Amino acid sequence: MSATSSEPLYRQVSQGLLQRIQAGEWAVGTVLPKEVDLAKALGISRMTLRQALHILEKNGVVQRQKKVGTRVISERPVVSFVQHMDGLSSSLRLAGQTAMRIDDVRTLQDLPDQGLHGFVSVTGHWLAVAGVRRLQGSSEPCTCSTVYLDHKYAGIVPLLQGEVDSVCGLVERVYAMPVHSIRHRISACVLQPDQARTLSLPLGAAGLQVQAWLHAQDGSLIEYVRSVHNPALICIELSSDRNT
User: Fold this and answer.
1) The domain over range 81-237 is classified in CATH as 3.40.1410.10
2) Residues 26-41: pLDDT tens digits?
């Protein structure tokens, strides 16, 4: 655990416990030490430990039962992703934990999405990049995404082949234009038939829709993205404190 890490302590503890489980210190079927003893050994509070164990439980690594304790049930977490939105770096983590397969790139003139209402393309055209994301270590699609950019960033088009981490990352690489701020809008939605087929979900199933507006330091829009997630594979976690 690092005092200088930007990751909250409970997430560091969760990762550390997982590493010890995977190293064989606690085999599958083993009951972990009592919370009070484990927290003391780690030099943390029981609240922090409980938060860490909650993450492992959500990921299918441990099972917590009253009068039994916390039992290891797997060495491998369920392949899923929790999108933390407690800062710029954490908001951009999805790109680092998934790969986006580029399915379609096209140029559009009319307003392609209501999320762009109020924004003006300096070229009069928008670049639309559509694709499907999958989690690292899995071939199962988790997200359908369409990214919209001003056509002035068309220099990234030759790089939009196969799989990419993020479109905004390509903009930063080619144009030296990093993301300075992000605004999100999260809502439930009913999957469109093509989205349901792509995500292997029933017709009419619910999805988790996230719209994001990524801005440069001068306030200009770098990209707008509308994503629809499989809620069984992607979830959103928000946190705040009195200083934010």
Assistant:
1) yes
2) 999 999 999 999 999 9
